[in-house]
Amino acid sequence: MPSLSHRLVQTLDRFNTAHPWDHNAHYHRWILRQLPDRFGSALDVGSGSGDLARLLAARADEVHGVDSDPVIISRARMLTPDATASSFTVGDALTGIPAGPHDVITCVATLHHLPFTEALDTFRNRLAPGGTLVVVGLYRPRTATDHLLGAVAVLPNAALGWLKNRGRAAAPPTSMTARTRPADMAFSDIAAQAHTLLPGARLRRRLFWRYTLIWRRP
């Protein structure tokens, strides 16, 4: 017979499937608060359908969104008014991004799909002096703190799903909706490697199974 905790996890999983919400978009406004009121060039790596890029365009002279999925890039272009300064390119997150330098680089729920140190090194080299790198990433829970923070997030996660869907079950996901691949790096390993490559970087565990990284290039 399944244990009570196992049945609870199954119940929550069914609830979250019926009442999904975008955990990454939850941090978009937080990202904006880390950035200057105005800046020149911004690069959004793993831009998806362009939600963050369009927010950045309200402050930037130009925004470049890059994603490896041509279908999602097509959707981003369709959703983006011609009047904005945003452009979207199908490309590899390491070799296909504009050379820059960029005043702002953002990367949301994408870094765990890439070779970690190579990606951070690429972002560092593309960032202008005085520029800001902001990452919202995923990590693999390993410590008691990790698991406690995950447990604390369960009820707020369900509440937000309920509120954002106004209590109704959402339509089944379409082929456009991709599930996020689980991360394989622990937070301690992420922090250690990030501090080596980006001295002075600030990292923090966050709710909803995310961490944040902020680095300003000297």
Question: Can I get a quick summary?
Answer:
The protein is α/β, with parallel strands linked by helices.
How would you describe the overall organization of this protein?
The protein has 218 residues and is of the alpha/beta class. The protein has a domain at 25-139 and 182-216: Vaccinia Virus protein VP39 (Rossmann fold, 3-Layer(aba) Sandwich), CATH 3.40.50.150. Helix content is 37%, strand content 23%. The protein is built from seven helices and seven strands. The chain has helices spanning 4-18, 28-33, 51-57, 70-79, 116-126, 144-164, 187-197; strands spanning 39-45, 60-67, 86-90, 102-108, 127-137, 202-206, 210-216. The protein has a seven-stranded mixed beta sheet, with helices on both faces. Helix 5 (116-126) packs parallel to helix 7. It starts with a helix and ends with a strand. Residues 1-6 and 171-179 have low confidence and may be disordered.
Q: Biggest sheet, strands in spatial order?
A: 3-2-1-4-5-7-6
Helix content: 25-40%
What is the residue-mean pLDDT, rounded to a whole number? 81
Determine and state the CATH class of the domain at 25-139 and 182-216: Alpha Beta
| Radius of gyration, taken over Cα atoms and rounded to an integer in Å | 18 Å
- How large is the count of helical segments? 7
Segments where pLDDT lies below 50 for 5+ residues? 1-6, 171-179
Query: CATH topology of the domain at 25-139 and 182-216, anyone?
Result: Rossmann fold
Structural class: alpha/beta
The CATH architecture category of the domain at 25-139 and 182-216 equals: 3-Layer(aba) Sandwich
Span between N and C termini? 58 Å
The amount of beta strand, in percent, is 15-25%
Shape: globular
CATH superfamily annotation of the domain at 25-139 and 182-216: Vaccinia Virus protein VP39
Order of helices and strands: HHEHEHEEHEHHEE
Largest sheet: 7 strands, mixed
Total DSSP E strands: 7
